[in-house]
# Entry
Amino acid sequence: MEQFAGKTRRIDADVPCGIGHVQLIRSFWSEPIDVVGIAHEHRLELALLPQPGAARGCFPDCWGPHRFERFGDLFLLPADQAVHAKSACRRQHSIVCSFFPEAVRSWFEDGLEWTDARLQASLDIASPVIRALLFRLGEEVRNPGFASAAMVELMAGQLAIELARYWTGVKEGKVTGGLRPSKLRLIDERLAAPSAPPSLRELAALCGCSVRHLTRAFRISRGRSIGSYICEWRINHAKRLLSSGDSIKSIAFSMGFTSPSNFSSTFRRVTGETPRQYRQQAGHGIDTH
# Structure
């Protein structure tokens, strides 16, 4: 049993193989997840319990700190890539297969360049073959049979090859009609500016296009509406402000809401709790104004 700040982890099995190792892990959190970490191995994980609330991840060194995309129950965290993860999950059972980068590098035709499209695809791997293989590998580790070590070795190698095929099939050029990365960075930078959230008209002007084109192209690039993206950014920004000593009223007006009640209803609709409840849960005191 391992204990970290706000987290308890139990490793039920850890089986080595030539290109990495396979683990069965149970994790428990005492508070919502909001962590930044770097793995030095490629970490393929299948989460076996449903996650309450949307789990999201960000690669801050590549995307900037404000772009978060959805985590699926099957995902891969690339080696040596900083990942910022957020989730309301409090417990999780996982099958994890970690690969040494040097052991699998030769299987990737282009040297495994982590493009924007590949990073996004890593957070929600849409491959029934990889899912079934990882689940079968977990069953073998949980209930080893005849020649189990050899079987684990073979299945881990097959997983690595299937991952190589998956990544080489994710091409940046397959996404057409979306916004260029430079335009997406402009949007993220504007959202991060210390001022009221921008209108769609302002963002369209910033990108040199119409509002209609902006909304269509943004959905193609990010797989979600720009409205939901701005809303999520506003809520995350509100959470940071609620961690300060500012009153809820001043936070509401600084973020462009017409009233504190409007701010509270929006915050509650997205997070399931009021700003005051969030502040109390986070241990930042009570604001009655």
Summary: The chain has twelve helices and ten strands. Residues 285-289 have pLDDT under 50 and may be disordered. Residues 175-223 form one domain.
